[in-house]
Amino acid sequence: MLSPAASPLKGPKDRADTMSRYPLGYTVGVVGGGQLGRMMADPVHRLGFHIAVLDPGGADCAAAVMSDRVVHGGLKDAEKCRELAKGCDVVTLEIEHVNTEVLAQLEKEGVNVQPSAESVRIIQDKLTQKQHFEKHGVAVPAFMDTPDVAAVGAAAERFGLPLCLKSRCGGYDGRGNAVLKTLDQAQECLDSLGGAPLLPLPPLLPSAHPSSRDKPLAHEHERWACCAGPVYAEKWAPFTKELAVNVARSTTGEIAAVRPPSPPPREPPPSANIG
């Protein structure tokens, strides 16, 4: 893994150096206008750039109040993704549940998409992601594909119990995980990962528009949608601590990592595993 380094923007000189590389009015387009999109908006503005977001919540999304332009539409809507890209110097995303086909097409048409559509495809499927990590020497818990009950039984025999079962696609903030404690739970766990979400959807949220005040915000329910589809298994990993490291790489190959803060003690998540 990368060694911790100082933030790439340590002071006025660093900001000036960064701004000198890009013209005034440089616009960052973000697929997704949730809390991470909102957090992205502040440093974008401090660099003197503009930000545009695409989100199914439109003016109700978290990032709207911080954005220069908001495109109202689904994160996988090809037409809306193209609308976002118009007038943007770079297109990025705040969440991986996006349309990689349209992102790849935009790349072919000369749009600067970061990270690349191919990189996003890898992280959209957690099994593919684990295989990619393993191939490149990144330590991960032992894992295997478990498309059916028989495969879950084989994983339990190989890795022992408890065993963590995960949706290969669509997981988010602990959703898409199931803990298998006994083999007679195997079918139940597979059914839960292929259908209803394991954790409840967010509560109804107030809207800026009275007509929608008594219904859930569409963008929140799209973001927290259930994780249906194939499942894989990971060997249970004892929980010690949880760390998040922000790493940035420039188009010229420069890499910087922000030193992670020491997290306060807390209960282990449903699965204390990488990815």
Give an account of the 3D structure.
With 275 residues, the chain is α/β, with parallel strands linked by helices. β9 (246-249) and β10 (255-258) form a beta hairpin. Strands 3-2-1-4 form a 4-stranded parallel β-sheet, with helices on both faces. It is 29% helix and 16% strand. It has helices spanning 12-20, 35-46, 78-85, 100-108, 117-124, 126-135, 149-159, 186-193, 218-223; strands at 27-31, 50-55, 69-72, 90-93, 143-145, 163-167, 177-180, 231-235, 246-249, 255-258. It folds into 2 domains: 12-124, Rossmann fold (3-Layer(aba) Sandwich), CATH 3.40.50; 126-239, 2-Layer Sandwich (Dna Ligase, domain 1), CATH 3.30.1490.20. The model is unreliable at 1-13, 195-221 and 271-275 (pLDDT under 50). The chain is built from 9 helices and 10 strands.
Top-tier CATH class of the largest domain: Alpha Beta
The dominant shape is elongated
**What's the total number of strands?**
10
Kindly report the average pLDDT value: 82
Range of helix content: 25-40%
CATH topology annotation of the largest domain: Dna Ligase, domain 1
CATH homologous superfamily heading of the largest domain: ATP-grasp fold, A domain
**Total of domains:** 2
The run of helices and strands is: HEHEEHEHHHEHEEHHEEE
The CATH architecture of the largest domain can be given as: 2-Layer Sandwich
Oligomer: single chain
Cα-based radius of gyration, to the nearest Å: 20 Å
